[in-house]
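Something for you to look into today, if you have time. Just paste the record in under my message, thanks.
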Amino acid sequence: MSNQFYAPPGGHALPLRLTFVQLLLVMVLSSASFAGPRYGQDELSRKVALKVENVTLRDALLRIEKKANIKFVFSSRIIQEQRVSFQTQGGRLAEVLDQLLKPLGISYELVDNQIVLSKKETAATETATPVAEQTASVKRPQAVAFTVRGVVKEANGSGLPGVNVVEKGTSRGTNTDANGAFQLDVTDGNATLVFSSIGYAKQEVAVGNRSTIDVTMESDNRNLDEVVVIGYGTVRKSDLTGSVGAIKGEKLLDRQATNIGQALQGRLPGVDVAVMSSAPGYQPRVRIRGVGSINSSLEPLYVVDGIIGVTNANLINPNDIESLEVLKDASATAIYGARGANGVIIITTKRGKSGATQVSYDTWGSYITPAKYLGTLSADEFMAVYNKAYDNAQKYDPEGFADGKYVRNDPKNFPNLFDANGRPLYNTDWEREVYKPTWAQNHELGVRGGTEKTSYSLSLGYTDQGGLMLNSWFKRYSAKFTLDTDVKKWLKLGGSMFLNRTNQREVDDASGGLNVPRMVMEAIPILPTQYPDGSWGRNKDWPGMEGGENPVRIANQRLRINPKNQMLGQIYSLLTFSPELTLRSNFGYELKFEKNNFYSGRDLNALSADQKGTADIWSNQEYYWQFENYLNYNKTINSDHTISALAGLSWQKRSWERYLAAAQNFIDDFWGYHNLGVGTSLQKPSSEDQEWSLNSYFARLNYNFKDRYLVTFTGRYDGASKFGANNKYAFFPSAAIAWNVSQEEFLKSVSWLSNLKLRASYGKTGNQEIGQYRSQQFLGTGDVLLGGVRQTGIWQSSFGNPDLRWEFTNQLDIGADIGLLNNRLDLTIDYYHKITKDLLLDAPIPWSTGLAVVTQNIGSVENKGLEIGINSRNVATNNFSWTTNLAFSTNKNKILKLGVNNDDIFPGPWFLGQTNILRVGQPIGTFWGRKRLGTFSTAEADLAAKYNRLPGDIKWADLNNDGKIDGSDETIIGRAYPKWNLNVGNTFQFGKFDLSFDIRFVMGVNTVNATKHSVEDRQAIASSSRTVLGAWTPENQNSMIAEIRHYNAGYDTAMDDWWVEDGSFIRGQNLVFGYSLPNKIGKLNFQRLRVYASAQNFFLISDYSGYDPEALTAFGGPLIQNIEFFQYPRPRTFSLGLNVQF
């Protein structure tokens, strides 16, 4: 990354060189500076200029609060109905208060940024005298109130300053002084005092007939006592031995999100969530602790209410989530064995509770606009580039020029495009014709309640999201129902059902071919979207152009509609044999029915005109079921020893059927894909059905001694149908230990250390996410022409491998959980080191076999990194609170082994050449190509000739100095995965207002701007990137871009580091400002009534020149990331929302 970051157009340049250490120190120290009481006199030195006449003392203090930005805390007995008048012009706050309050017998003290007022023992009778041109006059009525005094102490007996003391149900309150003492006037002996302070449990004390009340505050360990969901059970956070990140459902709703990935992004260290495409309906990509495979899936395992392996958890409504846990280390994931290598995300949804029925309604509406337009050539700029390209044709292709190959169009021959003076009639901005602002809306209705024995919940949801690209959209309808009932004291039954229907119109097919995003950049601006007669403008109207179609027409006439129906369900029984022993049985299922309906019209040039229209329907029916039974045993012996044991077995099976039917040569566009029979040329249909099954046994043992020493053993024995006959079963064990050091006697006197737990774990997990039949031999079919007749033949398409086995991941995790200052500052630190062995690779075999490769376990990759999570409660008063959370992670990836000979592998993508390389010692996602030095100048004509080049051509580094540029001069030129990520979130509560924002930092990453490269070389055959305006000329020889010339006149397009840009960025992820209305409006009572406004992607700082540095092309697998090739633009979203609960 360069030394400079740049704001978007219209912003200001921001010099910025960041190291993580510098940034983290600033964040931690900033938070820590608010982690305890602060004392100082700077506040009393503030200047006050104010004039008041005949106002109450309370009003005068409120005005001083605003002027001096200070807070007063006082009793109503002290501040009654006194009326004052005074004037001060720039006097110090201390002087103003002395002259205003001393005559009233009122003293003041600065405590924790607040001025606490109290009554002097002997009331002063003197009158005010002028100070700083100040005058005051006071009238004081007499009053009597019930006064309570006392001292608030910590557990060690020392006084606790800054504690909020409030009479419950009133606005009367005060703070304890530096010694923990307080004095408060209360209504009468029926009053209740509420004591609260950050890091301490809130206490309520009835006054009764006491005038003195002393209180000892206890540390607030609610965070440690929180229950965290783990595989097949729950555990207190303080008893965790593994690395588990947890988010409660109410926190997920702090930001507007339509899927789980959006709600999770940036929340937890070690969890990287990135957008695969900005098209509506696309699900984000999730990676936990790096990239651990080359040919297998890298997605984590999703478990929804116990249903394992949900294929599209992003269809789950975030509003329905009660909690979300991410299992990261082997101790946590080993319980899922063969499916846990990429981490596990456990989603627990909301269920009903006994008590009165609760009804909630949440809604938002959004305005969505492109965050950035790249800007394309204007009509005049296009013609200048076009003419320059033909002017230079003779220089770069003299033979072709002599043969008449380069004949430019004369504008005089195109009166429909140019005026009589040869000036273009049209100047079309294709970006703004295709990418337009749009709208979205979301509605969620929930009903939850129950009796003492039975509880229920019902939720309904609707999402309608427009896309920036013309005519793209996504809609979702969702419903969820749960029921739980205690049939007997020893038997509980329950279940849940999810129904989701989504529909999506996909305009961007993400293929990188002649699709809409590409044609937006290549459509020439001298054409209209439509001519006056209604016909569509297209590149072919200007002869010599490449044959892409009008992108507006494609968006209107090319249909791709993707309806999906998904049903998830679960029923369970819980038998309680004794308080220590239970048996739970679960049956879960997932049904999925999806289609892809496609039609491309009869007249869409270069797409389907040659076929006179083409249509296809792809259908997928998927079925999954699981049946699991497991025993839970929990026993505490002599209050010191706690044993928890789990043992169970599981059966899982997934199967699917897929069908494809297609047709061409339609007589009319009317029927589209709705009637394939209208196409007179039916294509050969295809179908397939596949299945896999998994049989498992699992167990876990936890031992806890006095909450100090914790041990966990976990194991799972899996048998999978996917693997070879010799390796179908494998055992996945793990072990973990933890030491609650803060429970030791020698640390209990350390008051600033609230919690210290050290953890370590080691274990093995597997990855079974490969093709269903990679271990077996395959027969394929193919057509050949024999005697002019098409014949279908059968051939062996792959060899079997009975020794094919799992990809194994061995992982070490060392961590610490630290709480400081009564847990006002919580830190979680983890270091992990994991090695994945037996990677599946296609190994070459002799051609004499008739095949080229066979799948074998012959690879290995390493991931190691550091994760830090910080949660800080900076300020907490009755009317204001501020919390900060940081999530930081690093990952270092390295390939350890590639096949028998460790040969390099070039994974593509094929249509861009060898952009990536897999090489031992380098990370996955390494970019590969030449080093561009610039362009040859006229003074370097002889040097250019040595490489068969001319001045104005690209100059590449001759790395081996052999006098030629070829594959041996290619080298590593970038990396697709970041060195570190940081998310900083802040939440403020001030009265009924709330404000929160998240800022995301991604550093040390590169992005390949293949879009820029591709359109830079389209000179004279399509529109070009605006960067060509800075191309080499005799007057501008210090350019990285070759001289403009016709595409066919020797323009070299080899992959080099000019494509590779700094992809680091700082993004304003989410910004929310809300207001909670009164809980009672007229006769209506609400538990919650809140309105809010929000913004997503509200700013971006980056050096990247494309749409967005987070360019995760949808066609890219784990090996092909951060390549922007005609990407869907990133949106900026502004929303208004409402939360209602009653």
Observations:
- The longest helix spans residues 20-32.
- The chain is about 10% helix and 45% strand.
